[in-house]
Design a protein that fits this description.
The complex is a heterodimer of chains A (345) and B (500). Chain A is mostly helical and 345 residues long. The longest helix of chain A is centred in the last third of the chain and has 30 residues, at 315-344. In chain A, α6 (87-100) crosses α14 and α10 crosses α11. A two-stranded antiparallel ribbon of chain A has the order 1-2. Helices cover 75% and strands 1% of the residues of chain A. The two termini of chain A are 14 Å apart. In chain A, β1 and β2 form a beta hairpin. Chain A has helices spanning 3-8, 11-15, 19-26, 28-47, 54-79, 87-100, 117-142, 146-165, 175-182, 190-208, 210-220, 222-227, 232-258, 267-279, 291-310, 315-344, and strands spanning 184-185, 188-189. Chain B has 500 residues and is of the alpha/beta class. Chain B has two domains: 9-245, P-loop containing nucleotide triphosphate hydrolases (Rossmann fold), CATH 3.40.50.300; 254-499, 3-Layer(aba) Sandwich (Rossmann fold). In chain B, 33% of the residues lie in helices and 25% in strands. In chain B, the strands form five sheets. A six-stranded mixed β-sheet of chain B has the order 6-7-8-3-9-10, sandwiched between helices. In chain B, strands 17-18-19-14-20-21 form a six-stranded mixed β-sheet, with helices on both faces. In chain B, a hairpin with a 2-residue loop joins β9 (214-219) and β10. In chain B, α8 crosses α18 (493-499). In chain B, 45% of the residues are buried. The chains are: A mainly alpha (345), B alpha/beta (500). Chains A and B meet through α1, α11, α12, α13 and α16 of A and α11, β17 and α15 of B.
């Protein structure tokens, strides 16, 4: 035991030689994604004259908006060391639901239930919140691991989507949704503004509220959170609902953005959202990271997807490259955790 | 020791250190064929360390290791197995999802010449072996479905019948009922008569005296006595374990302590008839304001479970808790905290956030008192700084990550988190385990201050010194039941050990 020694030796004297190294190591998880982003940006800017333009920056922002909205809630879940695999399916079913409750053109062969726009939006939000509650119930009350619980929910949500549209495509959504999803104000697409506001909101909640602190603490050491008298189940349940509602909002705006609501429309968003959160440096083991990391992760993915189009790469190779970058990010994630633990213990 | 027999195993001048702390200092140990060798000593005296060296768990030590007259050295548990040495560790290590038979033959199932497991033969042989041991279970039933004591017996059976010629048992009886202990002893004696050498570690000195041929006593990493069991008795062994008057620190604890008369203060917590599976049986007690209740017992006596029931982490099968006269059934630890109970578990790892700064570790339990929606970091730091100052946590930097602090200071942080808004009842598990003298002293003073402020405190420990130095009243738990209460009387370490 060294408590006697540490009284006599001030920490600053012992730590000084390593301070910079320690700081760099502990910030590894924030530095690495940012470096990745700068490298990717530099590479594409050099490789293609059409990449580093203001127009294209706008494209990238618009392209990452739906992912960004979904990733806000997922960040909460991953910070708690859980996972939500149902986000894309919940986004899809919420988008379909809002169209289902809106009057469609006569040629759309869906037995829909037209309602006023506000009612359609509220019902769709209620649906995604309810699915999130089911996730929360399975995870906290029954005790199903989130990986399995949300895997089941993925199927359930996809099943509801299928029943609602029955293989058809719906086009109309309430005016508010279509405004936010597909129009611009002063040259800035509304969907980018919504994504930015939601990311900002998520950041404020995580950083400045008591709930946000609890999320970090539960993710950092669940046992300790419980022994500190926190209601761990309530916090875990809440993040599952937050995740589902964020996914639902992303789904509604996404449908407006794409101009149609149909089955399997959001399938790629599951991997993209998880990738954005993890590539950004939020720890899969919980307790480390945040919305700032998610934003960097979103840009890494956005620049990568958009840039690969600009340099004219074989589209099949593109998928492989995305996979490799994700793998590299996971390696850094695990490695940064280990470095951090070594410095802390 | 049978005279004239050459020892099967001989250790000479064994020294082993963990990170600068010597766990064993130049220990000699010899084991004869066909003997049961009892080992006693307090926690941390070095018994388990020595046994783990014999079983190949610890490979780096200094000294000579002589097996069958030849110097040798195990590099792993596998080497020890190959040499015919097997050990039952203190913690249960079985595969609950496999069948009883598979557990008995774990790692060496009978196979035919194509490498397929011979299930029928395995089941038959496992059944026969267990029956010889007095256990009558279906060998194909799932092990996890059996009671814990039976699981422990089956684990012991696996080792006993593995064909090993040297068998080490570390606290094998802690979860066993008296008839099960009898069966175990009968089997040990039969194996001894067949020529097997057995080392038996236990805190239960009566057990040691009953079953052993030779008893060795350890204290502070040294062997302090070795005698024939027939030539000694319990008081003599306890005295050897504690070492009357030999070392200044221990002396302070071996003097009698006078427990004060019970205080006429309101009862803060009343526990009545708490029972939990095989861990606790009908445990009842009161704690009053301004009183420190010590709960003492050996490892596995049910303390850990009891503490977790008090903090709402485990639900008792039977029994009830009342806080200040009001019946409570906690549905979560959050409920217990709201009722004014604070809890410090025995392991710091389970209690603290190593990657977070000190101030967040301290403020976590009071956040809902100082902020409704938004955090108030400056208030948190202020509260933390006051606690750091009062508890003399060093270095006194609330921004430092907790992991940078020494163990003793981390333990103080674990206390500090509960003290900014004092609870009604503080439950402390092993509050001074692994601390140096200075830090122990600090913790003792902190607890006394809290008592003076009118808090009720429960201290649970397997270390007699901890309980003796803190408690006003002591209850002793043995195999899940209260066996003795010390109150308003003189008490010494010997008497406490004797009661357990």
């Amino acid at each position: 035991m060294t408590s006697g020694e540490s009284v006599t030796v001030p920490a600053s004297d012992r730590k000084r030689p390593h301070r910079l190294a320690v700081m760099l190591r502990s910030q590894m998880r924030n530095i690495a994604p940012f470096l990745t982003l700068i490298c990717l940006f530099g590479f594409f800017a050099a490789a293609s004259p059409s990449f580093a333009t203001l127009d294209n920056l706008g494209n990238i922002l618009t392209q990452i908006s739906v992912t960004g909205i979904i990733a806000v809630g997922l960040t909460f879940v991953i910070l708690c060391a859980e996972i939500d695999l149902s986000i894309a399916a919940i986004a899809n079913v919420t988008g379909i639901a809002v169209a289902y409750f809106t009057l469609q053109e006569s040629y759309v062969n869906i037995a829909n239930v037209p309602m006023p726009g506000w009612a359609a939006i509220l019902l769709a939000l209620a649906l995604c919140a309810l699915l999130g509650l089911v996730n929360a119930f399975g995870l906290t009350v029954i005790g199903i691991p989130s990986f399995i619980m949300t895997l089941a929910m993925m199927q359930i949500a996809a099943g509801i989507s299928a029943l609602l549209v029955r293989g058809q495509i719906a086009y109309k959504v309430p005016p508010l949704v279509s405004t936010l999803g597909s129009t611009s104000i002063g040259g800035v697409p509304w969907i980018v503004i919504v994504a930015a506001l939601m990311l900002l909101g998520g950041h404020l909640v995580l950083t400045y509220t008591r709930f946000g602190r609890y999320v970090y603490m539960v993710g950092g050491n669940r046992e300790a959170a419980e022994y500190s008298g926190l209601n761990v189940k309530l916090i875990l349940g809440s993040v599952m609902v937050i995740s589902a509602v964020c996914a639902g909002i992303g789904g509604m705006l996404g449908v407006a953005h794409f101009g149609s609501a149909q089955q399997n429309e959001f399938d790629t968003y599951l991997l993209d959202s998880i990738a954005a959160v993890v590539v950004g440096g939020t720890s899969l083991f919980g307790g480390r990271g945040g919305i700032g990391n998610t934003i960097v992760g979103l840009f890494v993915l956005g620049v990568l997807n958009n840039g690969l189009d600009h340099v004219n790469i074989d589209s099949f190779l593109k998928i492989l490259i995305r996979g490799l970058i994700l793998l590299a990010a996971l390696v850094i994630n695990v490695y940064a955790q280990r470095l951090r633990e070594r410095t802390a213990d | 020791m049978p005279v004239g027999l050459k020892p099967i195993l001989e250790l000479q001048e064994i020294t082993k250190a963990f990170g600068g702390v010597e766990a064993l200092r130049s220990v000699d140990f010899a084991l004869s064929p066909g003997e049961i060798h009892g080992l006693v000593g307090e926690n941390g005296a070095g018994k388990s360390t020595l046994m783990k060296i014999i079983a190949g768990v610890h490979a780096d030590f200094s000294g000579r290791f002589i097996l069958d007259g030849r110097e040798t050295r195990f590099r792993s548990v596998r080497d020890a197995h190959a040499a015919g040495i097997a050990m039952v560790h203190q913690e249960l290590s079985v595969a609950p999802d496999l069948s009883v038979a598979e557990n008995v033959f774990l790692g060496n199932q009978p196979t035919n010449r194509f490498g397929f497991v011979q299930w029928r033969r395995m089941a038959r042989e496992a059944g026969e072996q267990l029956k010889r041991f007095g256990i009558d279970v279906d060998p194909m039933s799932r092990l996890g479905d059996l009671p814990i004591g039976l699981q422990q017996l089956i684990e012991i059976a696996r080792v006993l019948f593995s064909g090993a010629r040297i068998i080490i048992l570390d606290e094998p009886t802690s979860a066993l009922s008296p008839p099960e202990v009898e069966r175990l002893f009968a089997t040990l004696k039969r194996l001894r008569d067949e020529g097997t050498s057995i080392v038996f570690i236990s805190h239960f000195i009566e057990d040691i005296l009953r079953v052993s041929d030779v008893v060795t006593v350890f204290r502070n990493g040294r062997k302090v006595a070795e005698t024939r069991a027939a030539d000694t008795n319990k008081p003599a062994l306890i005295e050897a374990m504690i070492g009357h008057g030999r070392e200044a620190l221990e002396e302070t604890y071996t003097h009698d302590i006078m427990l004060p008369p019970p205080a006429e203060r309101p009862v803060v917590l009343n526990a009545s008839g708490l029972s939990l599976a095989r861990s606790l049986r009908d445990v009842s007690f009161d704690v009053r304001a301004g009183e420190v209740l010590g709960i003492y017992g050996f490892m596995g006596c049910g303390q850990l479970e009891l503490a977790r029931i008090l903090f709402g982490k485990l639900k008792p099968d039977q029994g009830s808790l009342a806080i200040a006269g009001e019946q409570k059934a906690f549905r979560s630890t959050a409920g217990a905290r709201r009722a004014g109970i604070a809890f410090v578990p025995e392991s710091r790892r389970d209690m603290l956030f190593h990657q977070e700064p000190v101030y967040k570790n301290i403020s976590i339990s009071v956040l809902d008192r100082i902020s409704s929606l938004l955090l108030k970091p400056s208030r948190e730091r202020e509260i933390a700084a006051r606690q750091v100052d009062q508890l003399r946590i060093r270095p006194a930097a609330v921004e430092l990550d907790l992991g940078m602090l020494s163990g003793g200071n981390q333990q103080k942080v674990a206390l500090a988190k509960w003290l900014s808004y004092p609870p009604r009842l503080l439950v402390l598990c092993e509050p001074t385990r692994g601390m140096d003298v200075g830090a122990k002293d600090d913790v003792i003073h902190i607890v006394r201050d809290l008592r003076a402020k009118g808090l009720a405190v429960i201290v649970l420990s397997t270390e007699p010194e901890t309980v003796l130095s803190l408690a006003d009243r002591i209850i002793v738990l043995k195999r899940g039941a209260v066996v003795r209460e010390f109150s308003n009387e003189r008490i010494s370490k010997d008497r406490l050990l004797e009661a357990a």
